[in-house]
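Hi there. Long-time user, first ticket. I'm pasting a complex I've been working with (about 268 residues overall). I'd like to know whether the download I got is complete or cut off, because the file seemed smaller than I expected. Thanks.
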Amino acid sequence: MKISEVAKRAGLSVDTLRFYEKIGLLDSTHYTRGENNYRAYDESVLVRLELIRHGQAAGFTLAEIGEVVAAWEADQVSPAQKIAYFEGKLSEIETQIARLQRIHDYLNLKLERFKEAQCLTGTRPAPERLAENA
Amino acid sequence: MKISEVAKRAGLSVDTLRFYEKIGLLDSTHYTRGENNYRAYDESVLVRLELIRHGQAAGFTLAEIGEVVAAWEADQVSPAQKIAYFEGKLSEIETQIARLQRIHDYLNLKLERFKEAQCLTGTRPAPERLAENA
DNA sequence: ATAAACCCTGGAGCGTACTCCAGAGTCAAG
DNA sequence: CTTGACTCTGGAGTACGCTCCAGGGTTTAT
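Hi, the file is complete. Here it is re-exported in full:
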């Protein structure tokens, strides 16, 4: 697979792939170089790119994702350590979810109060009434 | 209140406050200028800064927060429009939470599978056994 | 054989959210 | 009245995650 096909299949730009390589997220374990010096990727690169995508979606920086990958692939790291590391990452995600939930509830409360205030001051009919009249 | 006190009370740097002002998140509604040209803030600035903090925690960019503030303060925007706008923002947060939850579940599943694989291949004793023997 | 479409590298540029600095004025304590 | 801590402005610098470009070589279709 040449770089543009990988880009297409992963939904990324060719530049992004070369950038990921530059910062160490992709390396020669994912491709070989032929006579023409073109990268010839194998399927494993798509798995790696999916992992990067998931990591980003979970709010990790590329540097953190690099760390995770390094931890995962390090043979001198015991499975127990890997498990501990990933459980730590999972709990970071849980913390993030809880934080977002708190923000959500806070904003929701503010909004509800604002809605109530609107009905009471009566500058506009309450939405329910509008709906009833429609 | 001088700028350094606001910074201290809000847990931000003086530079950050001036930066927020530069991009329009803070303005002369939050302070007056004395003879010496120093900013003299009133308490309202702390409310604004808290709003910015919450917005950022919810994953909005400063530009988006600026928009939100502008929408909120615009007199020509009807309460109904404001409510609709904020309900939209709330649903964005909900989407984010759902996304994080999916990522969490995905990683958790992977981790569980890895743990199982570790137990089966038996390169190490299962954690439970380790605990039992301890 | 030639043109279009691809590949390569190294490096510049961009948007976001700060952070730091120079150079100048102001204020408070001793 | 000096000294040190504060304030001001404008602008440069930083880290992140790309994105684009120049200037070169290669492949492919006609």
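A couple of notes from our side: Residues 2-4, 14, 18, 36-39 of chain B lie near DNA strand D (CB under 10 Å from a C1'). The CA atoms of residues 7 and 13 of chain B lie 5 Å apart.
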